[in-house]
Amino acid sequence: MSLFPEDILSAAQMIIRDFTAAGLMISTAESCTGGLISGALTEISGSSAVVDRGFVTYTNTAKMELLGVQEATLLRFGAVSEETARQMVHGALFRSRAAIAVAVTGIAGPGGGSAEKPVGLVHLAAQSRAGALVHRKMLYGDIGRSEVRLATVGTALEMVRSLLDGRRQSPRQAGA
């Protein structure tokens, strides 16, 4: 029995399979998910060939020290912002041997939300060494802490697969 639902396990299994076949590694930078993305990936046998490292940076200090998030970014935009997610993913990518990294920061609830940053708001970013960078702002709503966290894991894995698929397209296919 797994800790994760079947859809997340299936997505993780595809990532492990495809990254293994391509000889690539992944790293994660997680705040609101507290390591669940890494957990989902390492639930799959053979993941040690693919998962380079995971950063759990729940505090702003950890984000700055481990990932190089700028204090000015945190002060201006807050921990739960596109800017912070982008700096987190950049730090995870360049502080690892990964070809692709993914980062998440959000408000899982039940408390901690505000009018401008409600419970269920999550910013995700994924980046490849080739320079591709994607960001998603998700508004899951106040659906429950576990549900927000698991939905975030699913979205993060989907973003990783999207970047990997983009790497495999030729320039002609990508522009088609």
Tell me about this structure.
With 176 residues, the chain is an alpha/beta fold. 46% of the residues lie in helices and 19% in strands. The chain has helices at 6-22, 36-42, 60-67, 71-77, 82-94, 145-168, 171-175, and strands at residues 26-30, 51-56, 100-106, 121-128, 133-139. It has a five-stranded mixed beta sheet with strand order 2-1-3-4-5, with helices on both faces. Strand 4 and strand 5 form a beta hairpin. The protein is globular, with a radius of gyration of 15 Å. The termini are far apart. InterPro entries: CinA-like_C, CinA_C. This is CinA family protein. It comes from Rhizobium redzepovicii.
- Give helix and strand order, one letter per element, not per position: HEHEHHHEEEHH
In percent terms, what proportion of residues is strand? 15-25%
Mass-distribution shape: globular
Query: Can you give the mean pLDDT?
Result: 94
Total strand segments? 5
Layout of strands and helices, then pairs:
Layout lengths: L5 H17 L3 E5 L5 H7 L8 E6 L3 H8 L3 H7 L4 H13 L5 E7 L14 E8 L4 E7 L5 H24 L2 H5 L1
Helix pairs in contact: 1-6
Organism: Rhizobium redzepovicii
InterPro entries: CinA-like_C, CinA_C
Protein name: CinA family protein
